[in-house]
Amino acid sequence: MKIYQKSITLPPFPRGFHLVTERIVSQFPELSKINTGLLNIFIQHTSASLTINENADPTVRKDFESHMNKMVPENAPYYEHTIEGPDDMPAHIKASLMGASVQVPVTNGRLNLGTWQGIYLCEHRDHVSGRRLVLTVYGS
Amino acid sequence: MKIYQKSITLPPFPRGFHLVTERIVSQFPELSKINTGLLNIFIQHTSASLTINENADPTVRKDFESHMNKMVPENAPYYEHTIEGPDDMPAHIKASLMGASVQVPVTNGRLNLGTWQGIYLCEHRDHVSGRRLVLTVYGS
Amino acid sequence: MKIYQKSITLPPFPRGFHLVTERIVSQFPELSKINTGLLNIFIQHTSASLTINENADPTVRKDFESHMNKMVPENAPYYEHTIEGPDDMPAHIKASLMGASVQVPVTNGRLNLGTWQGIYLCEHRDHVSGRRLVLTVYGS
Questions:
Q1: pTM exceeds 0.80, yes or no
Q2: Reported ipTM
């Protein structure tokens, strides 16, 4: 069993859901050294998140943003944490609903995703800078 | 540390939430070789998902389906990804809310679940075929 | 690669979202033996859950509770699993939305969380006892 870990920073993305599979894989060549294993991708933020979903039609990512905004609306009357702007508290809730990390099986040095799967960065804030990820791959 | 990985296919299940703990464990005898470790179960699809919840009363699974249909409705006016049918875009959103993988501790060669915990396959589509899982167990 | 696993019990917390990072770390000194790795924290219950979110302002945790109660209300007319009280079925759904486990990178014997990240215990029931966690850390 081997383990490799690396921190990378994704550039700022606009609020919404974005495919970042290739950006991650291309920055982590150690992946190819693992024959059988798992990759953990962890985001070090609480107003952006990671998920795995459809990698083909961009309207899927648009509809994610539309629905998450409906399901976790801005300016709900019960929010008390409002000082950082109307997008802040919804961003925290959306981040926990999606999650701070994803795990992907690694097989023969490559991510063993399904045909239609890709890794999404979910950016929940209006004004952002880059987002730090910690990548950890391990296995034989 | 040892690691074992296997792909299996679950048979088609109707739309809804289904207990699949035994189907998974019975197809992965390598589990018994791990004294202290973790099992990762990964689903290679974007319109079905995995979660861990109550393993006893079937009405819990029915209520999950009812509430997820309310929380992520079909035919929302803002959906643009509609060509594959009214159940398609909600399926993608539900899949990310539940998640593409679960991790379960392994202790003495067995899943160390709580008394009332079981693994659910969450089938979000109306018409489905089998669902592919990648099982990875590792530890000492 | 090394692996350590330990079961601990958190004391009863009132319904709501609670920061428990230090309670977990202080009970798992084996963490310091891992230079590069991951910590998995698993909750052995189906009406409480774990997530990672903002570790500073207590109103964030209050707003989480308010919004989750709105998004997964008690007494929905379609619930059939009602015998254990109005908070029971919502607790199951909230638990799956948040998740039964979190993974955190470990670097130089410490959790490699972002500056503003902490681990939350999400207690979804009104009347609870302690909550059992299984901690598993592994790496080099």
A1: yes
A2: 0.97
